[in-house]
Design goal:
The complex is a heterodimer of chains A (116) and B (111). By secondary structure, chain A is mainly β. In chain A, 3% of the residues lie in helices and 49% in strands. Chain B has 111 residues and is an all-beta fold.
């Protein structure tokens, strides 16, 4: 079964540093997403991306965050200057065309970001 | 009011028993409904979509009640491997493909 892959699985960074989380979506998918989950809390939407631009973003996704699809396969989330409260699991997901809203989508195994 | 609400549990279930729990959603325009399963510190995994007519997948049955704005999940013949957190997930048309997650219901199946 096709998978969404994320790297690294765990990243520890110092407060104020920039981090880039990487995702390889399922190959024929067109919609890409980032979600996050702070330990013990619910999964929260960050951003969706389609046709090389952001289609929707949440209040969490402020100027410190950016997303990019630098080539035909990778989808990245950059946090420019990490804060302690950015510590969370970050999940990437992708969906086939506009079907995600009807059929759900597949998440990657996540990157655990720890800001110290 | 939270957009998607769930009883956090835990629901302690003897192996072989049946367990059921609900989720309520606040926005009547919600269109698509899902149950995801999440194991500790792992990614959410799609368990099943929920259709208006109700649907079943093996030991799992999901129901949707649009009038009362809730969905339910029933697990029959619980297995130890069913121990997990079950996430209620909703999409509404104005939100594009964004999914809104509930906080999850924790189920512990014990021998």
């Amino acid at each position: 079964e096709p998978e969404v892959t994320q790297t690294p699985s765990h990243q520890v960074t110092q407060m104020g540093q920039e981090v880039i989380l990487r995702c390889v979506p399922i190959s024929n998918h067109l919609y890409f997403y980032w979600y996050r989950q702070i330990l013990g809390q619910k999964v929260e939407f960050l951003v969706s991306f389609y046709n090389n631009e952001i289609s929707e973003k949440s209040e969490i996704f402020d100027d410190q965050f950016s997303v990019e699809r630098p080539d035909g396969s990778n989808f990245t989330l950059k946090i420019r200057s990490t804060k302690l409260e950015d510590s969370a699991m970050y999940f990437c997901a992708s969906s086939d065309a506009d079907r995600g809203r009807f059929y759900g989508y597949t998440f990657g195994s996540g990157t655990r970001l720890t800001v110290v | 009011r939270k957009e998607v609400e769930q009883d956090p549990g835990p629901f302690n279930v003897p192996e072989g028993a049946t367990v059921a729990f609900n989720c309520t959603y606040s926005n009547s325009a919600s269109q698509s409904f899902f149950w995801y399963r999440q194991d500790c510190r792992k990614e959410p995994k799609l368990l099943m979509s929920v259709y208006s007519s109700g649907n079943e997948d093996g030991r799992f049955t999901a129901q949707l009640n649009r009038a009362s704005q809730y969905i339910s999940l029933l697990i029959r013949d619980s297995k130890l491997s069913d121990s997990a957190t079950y996430l209620c997930v909703v999409n509404r048309p104005a939100a594009g493909n964004k999914l809104t997650f509930g906080g999850g219901t924790r189920v512990l199946v014990k021998p």
